[in-house]
Amino acid sequence: MNERRLVRVSKFLSRHLRHDPDRIGIELDEHGWVEVDALLKAAEDHGFPITRQELEEVVDENDKQRFALRDGRIRANQGHTVDVDLDLDPVDPPPLLYHGTTERFLDSIREEGIKAMDRHDVHLSPDHETAVDVGSRRGEPVVLVIDAGRMADRGHLFYRSENGVWLTEHVPAWAITFPD
Ligand code: HQG
Q1: Are residues 103 and 156 in the same domain?
Q2: CATH no. for residue 171?
Q3: Quick check: CB of 138 below 6 Å from ligand 1?
Q4: From atom 39 of ligand 1, which residue's Cα is the shortest distance away?
Q5: Whose CA is nearest to atom 18 of ligand 1?
Q6: How far is the CA of 14 from the CAs of 5, 66, 176, in angstroms?
Q7: Is the Cβ–Cβ distance between 55 and 74 less than 8 Å?
């Protein structure tokens, strides 16, 4: 499958497995899973046929491992705006995590910390470089350094999605180091 097709299928899957399953009439279970057969049929019925082989290739090759396949079912690993419980166990975070954002959000983040906005959780990156990529989606990237160790000591819970994104409900302003 060529790169363009890979990206199109990945976007189709993200849209329907994270945000808008109703659009193609599929139902995610409480943990976000849907039967692959049901998904493929719904995709075809809605004018976007995908072969099973393409689906498997997208899951395998996806640059960010956005999807998981298990027991004939598929789900998005993170990033949902629909209400799903990913059923992840809390894990101890590394001392520092990173959040990529952009200049125009900084005043508000200084005041209220980092909020989940439309998603379920705040997304944090394990390294600076990944955070630069995330921030670049919105403009000139700004990387905030998060004192995850201290947050954990104070009772904040952290989760790690299957593709290595760190999730937490809210990052208070005191845990953030802003660049000069
Ligand atoms: C900002 C992509 C003002 C926050 C990426 C961010 C990631 C605030 C935006 C994943 C704020 C929300 C998630 C506050 C947070 N005031 N702005 N108090 N608190 N913000 O897309 O972290 O390609 O929901 O800084 O790689 O950018 O979709 O979150 O800029 O892993 O797989 O509000 O999405 O992955 O934006 O990105 P998002 P994000 P995928």
Answers
A1: yes
A2: 3.20.170.30
A3: yes
A4: 123
A5: 109
A6: 14, 8, 30
A7: yes
